[in-house]
Design goal:
The complex is a heterodimer of chains A (483) and B (380). With 483 residues, chain A is mainly alpha-helical. Chain A folds into two domains: 249 residues, no CATH class; 128 residues, no CATH class. Helices cover 52% and strands 2% of the residues of chain A. Chain A is built from 23 helices and four strands. In chain B, strands 1, 2, 5, 8, 9, 10, 11 and 12 form an eight-stranded mixed β-sheet that branches. In chain B, α7 packs antiparallel against α8 and α9 packs parallel to α10. Chain B is globular, with a radius of gyration of 21 Å. The chains are: A mainly alpha (483), B alpha/beta (380).
Amino acid sequence: MNEQFRVAQKIGLMFRPGTALPKDIKKWAISQLHADSPALGISRKTGKVEPWPLSMQPDLEERARLFRLYRENKKKEEERKDGQELESAKRANREDNRMEKKDEMKFAHRNVYGKDQIRMRLMSFWANHFTISNSNGAWQVVGHAMEEAILANLNGSFSNMLYKVTTHPGMLAYLDNIWSAGEGSKHNISCKQKVDCHSGLNDNLGRELLELHTISQKAGYSENDIRQTAKTLAGWGAYLGDSVEKLKKTGGTTDHWNMYKTRYAEPGKKKVLGKEIGTGKDGLRQLTDYLASNEYTIMHLSEKLCQHFVSENPQKKDIDYIANSWRRGKGDLDQIHSAVIDRAINSKDDKFQWPMTWLFQVLRLSDATFFKGWQNIYNYDNDLMDVEDIFEELGQSFWSNRQPDGFLSKKEEWSSVEMFERRIRFADAIYKVGKPKTSPEEIMDRIGANMTTRNLVESVGDNRGRRFVALMCSPELMGLKSV
Amino acid sequence: MSRRDFLKFSGASLFLAGVPISGYTKDKPPGNISVILLEGGMDGLTAVPPYGDPNLITMRQKITPKGFTIINSFFGLHPSLPNFSRLMAKNNASVVHATSFPYVRRSHFEGQNLIQGGGLSPFSEKTGWLGRSLDLAQVPGKAFSLDMPLILRGNKDIDNFYPASIKNSTLKSDLINLISMSHSKDEAEIFSKLSKKNTKASLVPRHPVRLAEYAGKEMSKENGPVASVIRVGTFDTHANQVSDDGNDRNDNHAKQLEVLDDVIAGYREGLGDAWDRSIILTLTEFGRTVAVNGTMGTDHGYGSVGLLAGGTISKSRVITQWPGLSKKEQFDGRDLMATLDYRSVCAACIERSLGLEHDRIASEIFFTPKLPRVYDYIFS
């Protein structure tokens, strides 16, 4: 593969036909960190590429409103009121008020049609690192967190992104923090005097903030550190279904991303890993800033970045290079990401690509249409699969029920007969129904395919569909051999 | 919630392993073994409440099921486990209580890795204890799954199968063969296996009960698999472990117990006559805290229960050395103590189903030569 495509495969999503290939690939890649691209997509499968309608990208307040509406209708459905039990009404409730399928389609479109391929890859990396899954209604805002907590903060500092993700209503709901109340909080004390009032501390988010999001178990923290972290977090977040009145009363705002319920907060200072954390709302920022700059966090994440973007078998020198940039730039993400780009280009090692990344790359290279348009998200199509089914079949969906540790990057996790069968089948289906606009030969010429790939494609005969499947499932296109 | 949503939510998936290759002449293992992986940490005190312990009600009044079934003068069974209860009545099921793998750090990811890998510490093994057992029993195999869970990974080739549902797609074995030839060793082998796959196999429905029935049926066949794994998720009830309506069976934890119970019933149904040589066991990374956490849930703990079922059990028992629930009897002053190493239970089930000697299992599968043998408590 030529250098442009080799790099685009490792850290991007491949160049679409008609895009000029950059002469200086490193300069291009680094400039891509600031690439400006709207969410591009198609309205119908035969439509042209254009920006997603704003009406389908609601803000948090609107998402919360839709969530409340959805729940009210569900209640009516159970009570068989207002005709809400009718199939058509149930369907309308799902389609009008739930966001996850629209978000999933937008995510797919952005990756296939966007002009910000490296930013898309980084968004997926960090969204996976900070996994938010479906519990407590978080599904309504998973897509919002990806775009607004991750993507919108890609050019800032890691500490800022960490804080924005930790306080995002999706994270606070997914890991149960919305229910947590400090043991010494006003709410807890008055609650304990009543019959049947349940209140107390929940350490789920506190535990994962330390173990998964920042310092990792290598830091050797104690259960007490986890509890102190949970105490710092107590009071943050509210259930998405809470009424506007309740939100105003307990949090003083309707803004779910700035929701701090003083009555639920643990009073007094906290101490995490020996570091004193101040009292009140500002305490969390002190804690996330401290964790963000912790040496264990730097090493944990430098290795994870390296494993994902640089090499199947990351070397210490590459990890150290990224970690040093992290230290030098005091956690500035542009500098960290630039170091990742530098190492990915410098290292000639292969990097096996996630099924999801591979699918996007196949679609971009061939200019095939495999996702429906945004107008038809809920319509049955004879040829094209439902967006959620595509990701489910790939075994990789940001919108399915997931554990908070996310998808692993290593090849072994994705190498099995079933996983490989899906690559073949998807390539076949993409050829049959996606109507690729570029031929296997054109693709091979453009990417500078290696001899193994060319020989393979030759060996399968003249049938264009077979040649397409062979090309897309070649070691080269799967990220297994790039020489 | 519709049935489909519910099942999706329960997040179960099936893995079968150990299909003898045709023409393979070694003696068949004496039985078959199925593991139900419970992700998130099952609350043993909810599944099998020790109602005879006075501390249970003091510490857990709000979340202990009221309508439990009585097993004996000390232990009850959650009302969401009716099938398991019936099997106990027929002397075909047992409970192991206050047990765990030796893992006390309360992380899901380390914990899941350790209970599947069966090594001396998390992430120390690249293969799983069941996979290694199949190797040791010289049962070459085939797994049925989308991904390959660690527990089944072995040194020998365990292959997998889980029907794809991708519209407008076909598989052509000659094409796959050619693709295989272009790949290097590991991937070439996988593609090569794929090319030999029977693509006309009937679609396996993907919900846990049907999956369990399917697994049971496959294992009951003459040359069927000897091991299977089903995964049931979301036991991690940090908040709202019980429902507001006072009905035990609507509790969040109970809904997962119900899936587990249905899975066991599915196995029973599917196994048919093969039930008599079967053992099914549950596996979870840890139990949950004794005390309720205040958001009406429980946090990560230590000791939990294992549920065992199968025709190889001839006397139902609750196997335990009860540690007590008072504060000083708890592990770290918060969790149910584990008095029995669950690896011993796994070892006994391997011994019974695959016919391996305990000493070999202890040293070669679990790397712990002195692992106690508990076979007689379960199978005699």
